[in-house]
Specification:
Layout (H helix, E strand, L loop, with lengths): L4 H9 L8 E4 L2 H11 L4 E5 L12 E4 L2 H11 L3 E2 L9 E2 L3 E5 L3 E12 L4 E7 L6 H7 L4 E6 L7 H11 L3 H20 L2 E12 L4 E3 L3 E4 L8 H4 L9 H8 L3 E4 L4 E5 L2 H13 L6 E4 L6 H12 L6 E8 L4 H15 L5 E7 L2 H9 L6 E2 L3 H14 L2
Parallel strand pairs: 14-16, 16-17, 17-18
Antiparallel strand pairs: 1-6, 2-3, 2-6, 4-5, 7-8, 7-10, 8-9, 10-11, 10-12, 13-15
């Protein structure tokens, strides 16, 4: 789960992380009021969306008067911001963050994330702050330094010294960054984060280290422990179908293709999407119903797929182990009878209770095409989609 910049900075403040003063605003009047309360000669008006690249897209503006705050707030609120991370459709701006300006001397990059290879929290450090870290990694990888933290010891003094050395910070600034690394690690662990990105981390002209931006993601599997974080969720920033899927504990990700997929198991789901691409079409979603799906959950999954206007055909691919084929069949039949079937549907079942599942579908008198294996299923659904338009 992701949160907005202003929410992330509020979380970091709890751990003593230095961030600029700022106030959220949901209307033009609130933005003006926030700027008045900050009473600073330079104000930054920031669009709040779950995507990077806001500055390049015109979503971050530095102004020097309350009138300019009103002007920028009027321009941004309700507008659609298109960045390299939003895709061509962009995201609507419903919130702003009004922040005091900072006199920047130097900009750095600092992040913490879960390193899947070592199963540890890793820090990524670079002197190239304020830039896309992916671009830095591609063009000048020597400017990036990474290290992981042993969970048995947590952050040690040498970790902070290493960051200071990489960033070329000495004296008081070295002490500040060493303290900051410890606070960021504490926040990461305490809140079950999956990503904590500070870009840029800046040194001000007065010699202070400040986190000028904050992008935070949380481990969805740990959110039950953090109701205070769950309360920060902004559903308007998420795909409606993904929100609906989360209500049923379905692993669903919307994609841009035309063939809806319902599969059990992440590996099989990936293979299903790959073979659809192999035969010249693209998947409209990733959907793993899991091994313990009920008839009701399967029906909900089917309805979510059919609610996508881009879907021109549906492929159900189930290998029954813990997940029994007859349960899938009953769920599909129930969903089709409830919402109707306007596009071709191909079902491939294999494994536990496969014959019972096939029998349920055969006796349903629904217009469903059966497939013998995954290759056969992929060819049939691609052919059906292309023949209908």
């Amino acid at each position: 789960m992701n949160i907005h910049e202003y929410q992330g900075k509020a979380v970091l403040r709890e751990f003593g992380v230095p961030v600029p003063r700022g106030l959220p605003a949901f209307s033009v009047d609130e933005a003006v009021k926030a700027a008045t309360e900050l009473a600073t000669p330079v104000v930054v008006v920031k669009a709040q969306i779950h995507a990077g690249g806001r500055g390049k897209a015109g979503g971050v503006k530095v102004v020097k008067s309350v009138d300019d705050v009103r002007k920028e707030a009027t321009r941004l609120l309700g507008s659609t911001l298109v960045t390299h991370q939003t895709g061509p459709h962009g995201k609507q701006v419903n919130r702003l963050y009004i922040e005091e300006g900072s006199l920047i001397d130097r900009e750095f990059y600092l992040s913490a994330l879960v390193d899947r290879e070592s199963s540890r929290i890793a820090f990524v450090v670079s002197t190239a702050g304020g830039m896309d870290i992916e671009a830095v990694a591609h063009a000048t990888p020597e400017k990036i330094m990474t290290f992981s933290v042993d969970p048995a010891t947590g952050v040690m003094p040498h970790h902070g010294r290493r960051v200071a050395q990489t960033l070329g910070l000495a004296g008081e600034l070295s002490k500040q960054v060493q303290s900051l690394v410890g606070k960021l690690y504490a926040a990461f662990v305490a809140k079950d984060m999956s990503l904590l990105e500070i870009n840029p981390l800046v040194v001000t002209k007065s010699g202070e280290l400040i986190c000028l931006d904050a992008k935070i993601g949380f481990d969805d599997n740990a959110l039950y422990r953090h109701p205070e974080i769950m309360a920060l969720r902004d559903l308007t920033e998420e795909d409606e179908k993904e929100v609906e899927a989360s209500k049923y504990d379905l692993n669903y990700v919307a994609l841009d293709g035309t063939i809806g997929c319902m599969v059990n198991g992440a590996g099989l789901a990936m293979a299903t999407m790959d073979i659809i691409k192999l035969y010249g079409e693209a998947p409209a979603n990733f959907l793993d119903v899991g091994g313990s799906a009920t008839k009701e959950k399967v029906a909900a999954a089917f309805k979510i797929i059919t609610s996508d206007p881009k879907v021109k055909g549906i492929l159900v691919n189930i290998f029954g182990g813990i997940m029994k084929c007859d349960i899938i069949a009953e769920g599909v039949v129930a969903a089709v009878r409830d919402v109707g079937l306007r596009v071709p549907l191909v079902v491939r079942l294999e494994g536990t209770n496969v014959e019972l599942g096939k029998d349920i579908i055969a006796k349903s008198n629904l217009n469903v095409t059966s497939a013998d294996d995954l290759d056969d299923a992929a060819q049939k659904i691609v052919k059906a989609v292309r023949s209908t338009g």
